[in-house]
Amino acid sequence: MTSKELLYVEDALEHENFMKSCSTKASTKLSDPTLSTYMSELEKKHTEILNKFLNLL
After folding, report:
1. How many structural domains are present in the chain?
2. What is the pTM of this model?
3. How far is it, in rounded angstroms, from Cα 25 to Cα 1?
4. Domain assignment of residue 26, given as a range
5. Could you write out the DSSP letters of every residue in the chain?
6. Tens of pLDDT, residues 13-41
């Protein structure tokens, strides 16, 4: 891989990790159960995507 391609991979990993952490924080702070459930689903989705990226490496 070129250095530019590695930067793209690093950026994608950081983005998914950020989205996962935001979803985790939001789901614990919400009082509305519907929104909390939705944020938990987003957290799960971004965790799966992050794991897929890591398994490719």
Report:
1. 1
2. 0.77
3. 34
4. 3-56
5. --HHHHHHHHHHHHHHHHHHHHHHHHHHH---HHHHHHHHHHHHHHHHHHHHHHHH-
6. 999 999 988 888 887 888 899 998 999 99
